[in-house]
Amino acid sequence: MAHARKLPPRIVSIFYAIFHETHGRQIEYQVPEGLIAGGSSTTPDHTRSCPRKHNCPQSVATSSDTLFDFESIATYVLPPADFCGRLITISVRNHVVMGFPVRVEGHATRKRTFFQYNICFVFHSSQSTDLAPYEPVVRKIGRTLGNHEQESSFLSTPKTAKEMHSILEQIHEDLNRHAEASIPLDLINSLELKVLPLLPNPKPVYDWSVPVPFVDFSKHMDRSWDITMQQVIPHIDGISHVAKIALMSKCDAGLVRETVAHLLYYQTVHLIDIFQYSNVYAHRKSLISRPTEESVILECRTYVAPQNQALLEWPTLLDLYTQFTPGTSVKSWTELAGVTAERVDVRRFVTFGLIKGFLRRIHAYPYHISDGSPTNSGNSTLQAATTPTAIRPATINSPPDDLVPLLDGNHHTDQLCVHYGVGLAVLERWFASLKPQGKVRCIYR
Question: Which of 89, 178, 353, 419 has minimal Cβ neighbours within 10 Å of its Cβ?
Answer without folding.
Answer: 178
